[in-house]
Specification:
It is built from 10 helices and 5 strands; from the N terminus they run ααβααβααβααβαβα. With 240 residues, it is α/β, with parallel strands linked by helices.
């Protein structure tokens, strides 16, 4: 009996060690620039979004906002975008690769007329991540969705300069330049600059547009986003 218990304890220690080891690998892979997504950290959110798709009112044009928490926390999005019909499918602190990974579940089934995307900031918070990698990840997502929804219009919201991530601003600005250049080469893709209007008269980033975490936008921040995003999208759709 004692031998059996000792064997069980030994096996349990081996199992726990294996689980911890695999967890370490998965967490590392989650942040690696060379992986798509290995940890289903957003499964609950994505499952919830999928359930909401069934209740979407079939109004056109249908504008799908997706990306990371700056979209998810935009609680007044539907009201702010009227008369456009806006759908909010932002989730967690997602990266471009994760938006790509879940595209078949939260983008394609909606059959939107346009996608407004905010992503890339979380990617670039990784010090090993480059501006060029951000561009390439966006291009992969862009071409993938275009293949399935060839008539769609795209709007990429510039990566904002969050005060809490000032150490990565230079790389974020480089990524914005690369993505804007790419957007200028594509007929159905618009780059929307929200960085410039979020600066004061001296060119400094306005911290008063952010919550206390110095990362997410407050009401005033979203007001600036509305004022700069909505007119660009509206000009592409005749609502008369």
């Amino acid at each position: 009996m004692a031998l059996l218990l000792a064997t069980i304890r030994y096996l349990m220690r081996k199992i726990i060690f294996l689980l911890l080891f695999l967890g370490h690998i998965s967490i590392y892979a989650q942040h690696s620039p060379d992986t798509l997504v290995n940890v289903p950290r957003f499964e609950d959110e994505v499952n919830w979004i999928q359930k909401q798709i069934r209740s979407i009112i079939p109004k056109r044009p249908r504008i799908l906002f997706t990306g990371s928490s700056s979209i998810k926390f935009w609680t007044t999005l539907k009201e702010d975008m009227r008369p456009l019909s806006a759908v909010n499918h932002g989730f967690g602190g997602s990266t471009l690769k994760e938006v790509h990974y879940y595209a078949d579940r939260i983008i394609i089934p909606v059959k939107p007329d346009a996608i407004v995307l905010y992503a890339g900031e979380n990617d670039l918070n990784n010090p090993d991540f480059s501006a060029n990698q951000t561009l390439e990840d966006f291009k992969e997502l862009y071409f993938y969705v275009n293949e399935k929804l060839p008539e769609i219009k795209w709007y990429f919201i510039a990566i904002k300069l969050s005060p809490s991530r000032q150490h990565r601003w230079e790389t974020m600005e480089e990524a914005n330049r690369l993505i804007e250049k790419f957007a200028n080469s594509q007929q159905n893709l618009h780059f929307i600059d929200v960085v410039t209007p979020m600066r004061d008269e001296n060119g400094k980033v306005r911290e008063d547009l952010f919550l206390e975490d110095r990362l997410h936008l407050n009401e005033a921040g979203y007001k600036i986003w509305t004022d700069n995003i909505k007119p660009v999208v509206l000009q592409d759709f005749d609502l008369n």
